[in-house]
Amino acid sequence: MLRHGVYMFFNVESGQVADMIGRNLVGGWPNNSRTQEWEVAPLGHGYTICNLGTGLYLSVVVIRNTAPIIPTHFPVAWDFRMVQVPDQHEPCFE
């Protein structure tokens, strides 16, 4: 189970992390910026994802697997599940 806390979201293939530049969600190289830190907090049966640098939440335009992820002022609930990633010693979630 994912715990309430502050996380960085890594792309294990590229090594980049989720970052915010202005109101744009981008992939960037880890640099310990507040815009690369995300608070994950319980909301109903899921979790909100809020950027600590901008105060914006992650959401989607429509509910489907290929929907773009967008920043918004409104929290939505996300579902996380633990996955096994080869050569990773820390728990990984998707």
Features of the shown structure:
mainly beta; 94 residues; two-stranded antiparallel ribbon; 9 strands; globular; three-stranded antiparallel beta sheet
Structure description:
A 3-stranded antiparallel sheet has the order 1-4-5, with no helix packed on it. Strands 2-3 form a two-stranded antiparallel ribbon. The N and C termini lie close together (12 Å). Strand 4 and strand 5 (46-51) form a beta hairpin. The protein has 94 residues and is an all-beta fold. It has strands at residues 5-7, 17-21, 24-28, 38-43, 46-51, 57-60, 69-72, 82-83, 92-93. The protein has no helices and 9 strands. The mean pLDDT is 89.
Q: What's the β-strand tally?
A: 9
Largest sheet: 3 strands, antiparallel
Overall pLDDT score: 89
Structural class based on helices, strands and sheet pairing: mainly beta
What characteristic shape results from the CA principal axes? Answer: globular
**First-to-last CA distance:** 12 Å
Number of helices: 0
Strand order of the largest sheet: 1-4-5
State the order of secondary-structure elements, H for helix, E for strand.
EEEEEEEEE
Low-confidence stretches: none
Radius of gyration: 13 Å
